[in-house]
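Course assignment 3, question 2. Fill in each field.
Student: A.L.
Task: Predict the tertiary structure for the chain below.
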Amino acid sequence: MKYFFLSDGWTIGRVWGAEGLWNEMAWRRQPKIEQMDLCLIEPEERMWLYRVEDAVLMVEVKPLAPEPGEPAAKNIGQVVLKRLISGDQVVERLCAAGATCQLGGAIVEPTGTNEQI
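Answer field:
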């Protein structure tokens, strides 16, 4: 399995495998991409962990369309994630100094104290 973090307000677009752009007709299914119940909390941002199958090489992500009357918060149209990370790299990121995580309803602070939301 491979992983990536995706910020709130962003969604998954196109997906690439070894044969190029993911073809649902050829594979007879959509790629397996699952949002996990774990996120990193940083100032002004919450980044959710996603798990993808090994056949996925790249993932396009793009901001969600703003609600009517809401200004567009980001000027970025889309981003292609070319370096998906391993499980070991996820653990390293979660253990990084200052990382605050949310698992289910519990927030885990770097000091080890837990807070229920």
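Instructor remarks: The helical segments are 24-27, 87-94. Strands lie at 2-7, 10-17, 20-21, 33-42, 45-52, 56-63, 79-81, 100-103, 106-108, 114-116.
Grade: pending
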